[in-house]
Amino acid sequence: MLLEKNADVNAQGGYYGSALQAALSKGHVQVVQMLLEKNADVNAQGGFYGNALQAASSKGHVQVVQILRKKINGQTATK
């Protein structure tokens, strides 16, 4: 994966704004967890949804919303 080659986990651009917002909006639990472990910025603004929490809740993906809330609250994001 690109992150193994030191790609910027917080790169901005495109429809979703960031990789984290894209993964959250699609409900990809494992990708979300990996990006958060690589210190993806949960407060980044941009893209169609505006921010990570809006992207996570946009399609009703409860599990990724819970993971994101735990991260925002300073807890470890787990399955």
From TrEMBL:
<feature type="repeat" description="ANK">
    <location>
        <begin position="15"/>
        <end position="47"/>
    </location>
</feature>
<keyword id="KW-0677">Repeat</keyword>
<protein>
    <submittedName>
        <fullName>Ankyrin repeat-containing domain protein</fullName>
    </submittedName>
</protein>
<keyword id="KW-0040">ANK repeat</keyword>
<dbReference type="InterPro" id="IPR002110">
    <property type="entry name" value="Ankyrin_rpt"/>
</dbReference>
<dbReference type="GO" id="GO:0005737">
    <property type="term" value="C:cytoplasm"/>
</dbReference>
<dbReference type="Pfam" id="PF13637">
    <property type="entry name" value="Ank_4"/>
</dbReference>
<dbReference type="InterPro" id="IPR036770">
    <property type="entry name" value="Ankyrin_rpt-contain_sf"/>
</dbReference>
